[in-house]
Specification:
two-stranded antiparallel ribbon, 8 helices, eight-stranded mixed β-sheet, alpha/beta, 2 domains, Rossmann fold
Length: 314
């Protein structure tokens, strides 16, 4: 059999008459002007009437597309069977709008970075009174004269590190813990240091509540880095010294990248890359960060031992 249904001449003639009658009805319904006060047959009912006359089933309208899925848990979060923290399901539309309008629409092109910022609930890292502004394009106060950086700067610095899967990363200046959570969401081995003990504990608690288990916290001065965990593939500094802390350069592995803001009144975000006997320095963009405190603010008693060579890219 070829799958076609044969019909008799009589059936064909009857069907032709129904088609002609249906066309006539359709023309009358469309062409006759409405009488004043009359409720005219809605045109939406016309296809149903014709389908009944022709003896066929009207085709249903295509189903509306399903809503976008909620952000999925990262493999870097606890895999102990516990449900994800409710914050991951809150303000999802605001996070997506932030990623689309503030990041992807500008120069954030790394899909892994965009996905991480879409998953991490930024409002979980700010005070309750600030949560309505959590996904707006500006920094927010977190208390103790510190701030959480605007989403664009978080994404820009993360992308600038050129991170590979599973790399070991050091963050100087934990602050709220949001940047550490973004790095952890990327599946990295994260070390982070915060000089204000209260902030360090608050950030540790916030990240732990969200289930991140690949972050190690330390309360203390980050100027000398974390030597026992070195070397690092990447180091990020989220407060501005007026010079590059020499210990951080020493703790970079071969090919390692250091991204930090430099300066006091005028600040500039720079990237330093360690290549054999060279340090390649690249200027990225002007920024405004809180100053790096602790040893970074003390007068240097001895000149910093320079690396063998340094150069800006051509």
């Amino acid at each position: 059999m070829n799958g076609r249904t044969s019909i008799t001449p009589r059936q064909a003639a009857a069907r032709a008459r129904r088609v002609q009658a249906a066309g006539t009805i359709a023309n009358l319904v469309r062409a006759r002007p409405p009488v004043r006060g009359e409720r005219r047959l809605p045109e939406l009912l016309l296809p149903l009437l014709l389908s009944l006359l022709l003896g066929c089933t009207p085709q249903p309208s295509p189903p509306s597309p399903p809503p976008p899925p909620l952000p999925q848990p990262s493999a870097s979060r606890a895999a102990d069977g516990a449900p994800p923290h409710p914050a991951f399901g809150e303000r999802v539309a605001e996070r997506r709008a932030m990623v689309h309008d503030q990041l992807a629409a500008r120069d954030i092109a790394d899909p892994r970075v965009l996905a991480a910022l879409e998953r991490v609930p930024r409002h979980h890292f700010v005070r309750p009174g600030e949560q309505r502004q959590a996904y707006r394009d500006h920094p927010l106060p977190i208390g103790l004269e510190q701030t959480i950086s605007q989403p664009y700067i978080v994404a820009f610095m993360t992308q600038a590190l050129r991170l590979g899967p599973g790399e070991r990363v050091l963050e100087i200046g934990t602050g709220s813990g949001y940047q550490a959570a973004v790095l952890a969401e990327l599946g990295l081995e994260v070390y982070t240091i915060e000089i204000v003990p209260e902030l360090a504990e608050r950030a540790r608690r916030a990240c732990s509540e969200l289930g991140y288990r690949n972050i190690r916290f330390r309360a203390g001065d980050g100027y000398r880095g974390w030597p026992e965990a070195a070397p690092f593939a990447a180091i990020m500094v989220t407060a501005a010294p007026d010079h590059v802390p020499p210990a951080l350069l020493e703790q970079l592995g071969e090919g390692g990248r250091l991204v930090l803001p430099l300066g006091s009144h005028f600040q500039e975000l720079v990237r330093l890359e360690k290549q054999a006997d060279w340090i390649v320095r690249e200027r990225l963009l002007p920024v405004r960060f809180v100053p790096m405190t602790g040893e970074a603010m003390q007068p240097r008693q001895q000149p910093v031992r320079p690396m063998p060579a340094a150069a800006d890219p051509p």
